Amino acid sequence: MSDAQEFWVVSAAVNDAQGDLAEQLTALSPHPLVEMETPGQRQLWLEGYFDSEMEARLAQSALEKAFPELPLAFRHCPAEDWSTFWRHHFKPRNIGKRIRIVPEWMREELEEEAGRETVYIEPGLSFGTGDHFTTQFCLEILDRLAAEGKQQGPVFDAGCGSAILSVAAWKLGWRDFLAVDIDAVAVEQAAENLERNQVPAGEVRLQCMDLTQEWPQGKFPLLMANMYGSLLMDLAPRLVDSCRGDLVLSGIRAMEGEMVSDVFARLGCREKLCNADHEWCGLWLELPS
To answer: Are residues 76 and 106 in the same domain?
Structure first.
């Protein structure tokens, strides 16, 4: 997506009373959501990006009806604001012992760090920079699996966003990926991120796919699904059936973590790790290979 595109943005405050807010805003917005945190506070905001003012106003009206007590904000995001936003908020970050995430625009400024695999990301409007807990959790699990020598493919990256997980996993030694996302813009951005990280053509099969309507064939020793908790629970039987080893789940609200874990436990998963911050939760599960 071009940085020159303008957007109209609907922002909604997040709290525990609106557990399905993210799902509703996702359904309304044509682009992946962005989460913002007010500096110096713990208030989180979910932002939906729209291509026209009319679309944004209609989404705002729908949210006002669904959540009459919910604080909402509306703003116009001029063309130059998007690239400026990322340059202010997306900084280099080391994750685990072997991963380093670097914005593409800082490639020439920073030298690669010895002992770390550098992942260059241009996020655009796709989700996944390594700053958010949900993405960071998955990257940390990849780092641990690599340390254990478990780089066995194929890998299924469900809800791939910017493809940051597939790129990091490839640099850590995994091969043969299937990466899917419901959003066509995210898939386009993912393809660009694969190219800028010199992932060979054909190593990662990218597809735009609605996993509630269709499902890929195959069994995967590593399956990563960074989605919302309710969707993970809906897809649980398919995810478990497709996994033959490590199943990494993220994008789960902290208050939903135990519920999601129970659903997968009933399907035969063994919990290896559950980690959370004040808002989000991630699960590392294991299935018989």
So the answer is: no
Q: What is the pLDDT of residues 213-247, one digit of tens each?
A: 999 999 999 999 998 898 999 999 999 999 999 99
pTM for the whole thing? 0.75
| Residue from 128, 134, 105 nearest 196 by CA | 105
Q: Say yes or no: 129 and 65 in one domain.
A: no
Q: Cα–Cα distance between 102 and 187 in angstroms, integer?
A: 20
Peptide linkage before 154 cis (omega within 30 of 0): yes
166 contacts 177 by C-beta, under 8 angstroms: yes
- Please report where in the chains the tokens 């944004």 appear, as a residue: 56
Q: Which residues of 280-289 are buried (b: 16+ CB within 10 A; e: fewer)?
A: bbbbbbebee
